[in-house]
Amino acid sequence: MAVGIFDSGLGGLTVLDAAQKRLPDVDFIYLADSANAPYGVRTADNIYDLTTAAVQRLFDAGCDLVILACNTASAAALRRMQEGWVPTDKRVLGVFVPMIEALTERQWGDNSPPREVAVQHVALFATPATVASRAFQRELAFRAIGVDVEAQACGGVVDAIEDGDMILADALVRSHVDALKRKMPEPQAAILGCTHYPLMQDEFQDALGADVAVYSQAGLVGESLADYLERHPDKMGGGEAGFLTTGNPKTVSQRATQFLRRQITFDAA
Questions:
Q1: Which end of the chain has the least Cβ crowding within 10 Å, N or C?
Q2: What is the dihedral sign for C-alpha 240, 245, 251, 257?
Q3: CA–CA gap between residue 229 and residue 191 (Å, rounded)
């Protein structure tokens, strides 16, 4: 009984870790498309093709439910996949849902008209492809009015994290925060719109200041997944827990072990 979690690289391990802690009795199959990471600089059609191929691999492994633990894939491919690609007996969910639920303090199934919410000035840090899609702003507008979202494309951060160069990642985070603050000097909240970014959450918080609420997706997705599985136990699926990568299993295993500070062993996808 396994649930699939897909990411372009290792960032989704932050979601996996939170989900495992929240749902210790659930097995997960994690697939990292490391050979094609990062997705954030690719075209929407390219992201769609790569994402559907990866999700199909997880379906073939026995998963009936797959979480796109990748904001870029969620932004650029998910809606198109749900409208015409996902089989009727399968489900693919993205990571925007729990984030917007938390920000707007309303449930996803709440279809009442958009209303004012407490937070009015929001900074969104994401990959160039996620920023270009405007998917976050579109979904937020369905539920809230009067929210000013300033998006900052954080080029280079994912590459630095995947390469294990945390000194460079720190410098890039601070540079991107400075650029955001030139456009929005006093954000009330900041969205870390890439599952790699929680690995740099302390750096984002330090650069933004203690008075800015920083929303990280990992824990929110874990809670949302627990709620979903309680309502849809038939989507537990099959397959055996494990880690798959399209990249070099040895290299990816070493990086993953470093990120989660526990032994992680990837096999070839």
A1: N
A2: negative
A3: 25
Two tokens, residue 229: 């599985």
- How far is Cα 156 from Cα 158, in angstroms, rounded to an integer? 6
144 SS3 class? strand
More confident residue, 3 or 240: 3
Each residue's pLDDT tens digit, 105-126: 876 567 788 999 989 999 999 9
* Residue 133 · residue 126 · CB < 8 Å: no
- Contacts from 102-106 at CB under 8 Å and sequence distance 24+? 102/215, 102/220, 103/140, 103/144, 103/189, 103/191, 103/215, 104/140, 104/143, 104/144, 106/143
Catalytic residue among 47, 63, 65, 70: 70
CA nearest neighbour of 158 among 251, 42, 31, 4: 42
Active-site residue, from 5, 29, 65, 194:
194
What pairing do the DSSP bridges indicate for beta strands 115-116 and 2-7? unpaired
pLDDT at 220: 85
70 is catalytic: yes
Identify the pLDDT of residue 51: 98
**Which pLDDT score is estimated for 1?**
65
Q: Please tell me the pTM assigned to this model.
A: 0.87
Distance CA 199, CA 166 (A): 9
Please write the tens of the pLDDT for every residue from 198-252.
889 999 999 999 999 998 888 788 888 988 898 888 887 667 789 999 999 999 9
Question: Can you list the positions of beta strands (E) in the chain?
Answer: 2-7, 27-32, 65-68, 91-93, 115-116, 121-126, 144-145, 148-153, 189-192, 213-215, 242-245, 267-268
CB-facing half-sphere around the CA of 57: CA atoms within 13 A: 20
CB 245 within 8 A of CB 162: no
